[in-house]
Amino acid sequence: MNKVIGITVIGLSIFSMNYAIAGLSTGIESTTPSSGKINFTGVVVQATCSINLVSSTQINLNNTVNLGVMKTTQKETPPVYFYLKPDPKCAPTFKQLTAVIAWSGSNFNDNGLTNLGTSKNVDIALTGYTANSKISPVHLTQTNKVIKDSYTALEGDKKTFPGYLFSANLQDKNNQKPIPGSVLSNAIYNVTYN
Q1: Can you spell out the DSSP letters for the chain?
Q2: Which residues contact 44 (CB under 8 A, 6 or more apart)?
Q3: For a 10 Å CB count at each end of the chain, is N or C smaller?
Q4: Within its chain, how far is the Cα of 31 from the centroid?
């Protein structure tokens, strides 16, 4: 019986030794864990209002402002006024805040917006009016595309606040005679409140 026990002990010893040698020969190594730090950032803002493009008579314009007809003998057309009108239900949410209306797009130039239609020598002038700029309207160009206005006008009669006032009109480009054709351009607006 002693021999059996001896063989069993030697057998276990050989098995353990073989396992340890096999582990080293297969390339299994001990490694230290990798770790790192991740920063998470964000901003909490008040919910935004839906904005509608409306005419000076408060008719929904479906995102299109018709600038009318310009004759080749004209230097410019009369301005067409329109509003970016926030939903009146938002008025209490934005009480005492300033609206920042930022315009963007690749069609802005030094005169306003470049005409993408077939007419030549014509640009679209885009102007913003705020409570503070009624005397000096803000002409929007490729280097000046932000309007700030107080939303506190809604504190009075929330249902009659017309919105943020803008105008657009056709103008000859650098005093050149307009060439007949279509006029088309576009711009993107983004309204935030702070």
Answers
A1: -HHHHHHHHHHHHHHHHHHHHHHHHTT----PPP-----------PPPPPEEEEETT--B-TT--------TT-SBPPPEEEEEEE-GGGTTTTTTPEEEEEEE-TTEETTEEE--SS-BSEEEEEEEE-TT-SSS-EEE-SS--EEEEEGGGGGS-TTT---EEEEEEEEESTTPPPBSS------EEEEEE-
A2: none
A3: N
A4: 46
How far, in Å, are 6, 7, 16, 116, 181 from residue 11 at the CA level? 8, 6, 9, 89, 99
Q: pLDDT digit of tens for each residue in the chain (194 aa)?
A: 333 333 333 333 444 444 444 444 555 566 777 788 787 877 776 666 788 888 888 888 888 999 999 999 999 999 999 888 887 777 556 666 777 888 988 999 999 999 999 999 999 999 988 765 555 688 888 888 887 776 544 444 445 567 788 899 999 999 999 999 999 999 998 888 77
